[in-house]
Amino acid sequence: MNTISKLFKAKRMLPISANLLAIGGSTYYLQSKIAYNLEEQESRLDEIEGTLRGHIGLIEDALDRIEGKKDGKKMEELYGKRGRDEKEMKN
After folding, report:
1. Domains of the chain: total
2. Residue-range definition of the domain harbouring residue 46
3. Per-residue pLDDT tens for 25-71?
4. Residue 9: left (phi > 0), alpha (psi -120 to 50), or beta?
5. Is the full-model pTM beyond 0.70?
């Protein structure tokens, strides 16, 4: 019981509470930074995905033209629609 009463003396409460406040504040700050960075990474990956889809569409159209298929513009409609929708939303 004597040890517990020594722990809660006034001159030891200030450093203990300061330590707990610092640990709690830094934990909250790091959690918010991690959440923000994850959102940023997800938006970058979505942009990369759209770019890759566009390039895949162009490659498939070129392959269809080389092979002589008639519906070569089908891929442009599928892959280009998303990019146009995003551009219209920005304006």
Report:
1. 1
2. 2-90
3. 999 999 999 999 999 999 999 999 999 988 888 888 888 888 887 76
4. beta
5. no
